[in-house]
Known about the structure:
Elements: E1 6-10, H1 14-25, E2 29-34, H2 38-47, E3 52-53, H3 57-63, E4 66-69, H4 73-82, E5 90-93, H5 104-108, E6 112-118, H6 125-131, E7 136-141, H7 145-155, E8 159-162, H8 168-178, H9 180-197, H10 201-222, H11 231-234, H12 237-250, H13 255-272, H14 277-288
Parallel strand pairs: 1-2, 1-4, 2-3, 4-5, 5-6, 7-8
Antiparallel strand pairs: 6-7
Helix pairs in contact: 1-6, 9-10, 13-14
Amino acid sequence: xxxxxxxGFIGTGRVANTLARALHGAGYRVTALASRTxxxxxxxxxxxxxxxxxRTQQEVVDASELVFLTVPDDAIAPLVASLAWRADxxxxxxxxxxxxxxxxxxRRAGARTGAFHPLHAFADPLVALANLPGCAVAIEAxxxxxxxxxxxxxxxxxxxxxxxxGTRAIYHLSGSFAASFxxxxxxxxxxxxxxxxxxxxxxxxxxxxxxxxxxxxSVAKMGTVEALTGPVSRGDAGTVARHLDALRRDHPRTYAxxxxxxxxxxxxxxxxxxxxxxxxxxxxxxxGKE
Length: 290
């Protein structure tokens, strides 16, 4: 692969919309795009000077030295098996959870294979592009491709993260706890306000988001254990009991979720060492019997 490879993308959704723009901005040549529809590829081509939309995925492979696969995880293996690869190229998927074995047909054809997964949220590609610098990117490949992808990551101002083989599922699911599950928890909180307090969801989020931002700021400065707040962290078993009674009565579907999260908070509070033996015993009994 040359020092300035012709880069192609198969799949032109949110990840490709972010990475293709970022690579172009860093001086890389993004030249070939294909997706399920020509229209999707053409829209991204209009935003990336020098890029061309192709009708077929094979045309992208034929026109590129480095192909990024930015398709749904379950589509990677059958896609790779359906295309003809070359020995003078590399193919890299952008999945967090998929192991490199999904690229085996390309490897057998002589292509170098790897994975390049920015640990980032891509709900809005333009917002993702603005916030991309400083994010971690999980890279998996053999040399020399690993070094080339690491250089690319540095050019994008990303922080390379080396993943040992066979660990991608754990790596990826941890990101769910730090991203999509936070979204789910905020939705749960807003639903409690909407259904039990009569507060519209948008108004609830306006009130709750500053609390979430402050929590994340504290975690960034102090770490997860020291930043822990709330009744469990204070050893306030009476408040936790009232929470459980309210959920049992008014919102039972959230009850088990609260108990599980409270147990995790209790473990953190115990690690911090600020609970008395009596507080620890009371909370353990309260949450352990549920």
